[in-house]
Amino acid sequence: MRSISLLCAVVVSATLAFAQTPVPKSLSPFEQELVTNEKQFMQAMQEKNAAFVSQTVSDDFRGIATNGDFYEKDELVGTAQEGMPKDLRIYDVRVVRLDDSCAVVAYNLIVPGARPRYRHMSDTWTKDGGKWKLKFQQVTPRWIWIEAAVSYQPSAISWQTGSRRVLIVRVDLRTPTFYHQQP
């Protein structure tokens, strides 16, 4: 009797575990082509291949940085010349098809050593002369960084920065938990 109960518990647990595991969706040829373009573009950024980046980015490219400022093709190519960390991590890639010659590739990006490290990316690709070109990019920080002067109590958490004490607070947009980090 005990072994039957144990067997039932194992079967129910396994069934629940598999029911909660998302089945990876296979990509259409259209989606696969765009994901491949995105990977090649990010690899070129890592390898400081500014020529490839320049060819891949549309001449009228516009981007929005994590601070809300606009940037253009020449700034993106300049970033490619500096290079990106080799241990970038891209995950949760999704392709939104707008039409046969335009799509948005949205993904999450981890850039070790950068601030912000965690980013939500949205890249808009258009076909120009039969070739995919990056037309627009928006970089949204996953964390909100707030810098504020603190009225200091000896027991408060703060750090001296120049002539004032500063508290850096990192807020996870998905949960109301606050994290403190020294600048």
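(the above was protein one; protein two follows)
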Amino acid sequence: MAQELIPKEKIKTSSIVDTLFLLSLILLIILGGSYVFLRFKNSSTQSSIKDANDQIIKIKAERNNDTERYVFNAQKKIKDFSEILGEHRITSNFFAFIDKISYEKVKFLELSLNTETKNVSLGGETENFDTLGKQILNLKKSDFVKGLEISNISLNKEGKVNFTVNFSLDSKIF
């Protein structure tokens, strides 16, 4: 091993090289710090985006549940209303029928109509037995009248005939 006896002078670096070296070292530290900072911010932003998407999905699910409940309730109401409407009897047809078969000199003073059993009881008054007979014939001719019964025939103080007619109706009239 050879040792040099004459010491050599250290090579001096210029101050520009030292400055450049320090600047590049500072730049490297700044870049490293920026990289770490940006990675952290990216991770934080991704987490915020994921949370926002989860909230959007939750809100949409709640709205869908509310909409489904609203639609289900509306369907139930429509079904209930359809059932009620299906069972509804149109009694105005009965009054048109009575108007059609009534003899002009007969007054009906009492009416009892049961739409479930389709039984009718009419209490009336007429001038004489002839007009009562014509009214009964009109009722017998009708296809809607079944089981015609006449009862409580009497003369009142004015000499008019009071009567009660009971019969059943065909369900087609409703």
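Reviewer note on protein two: Helices lie at 15-87, 92-101, 129-141.
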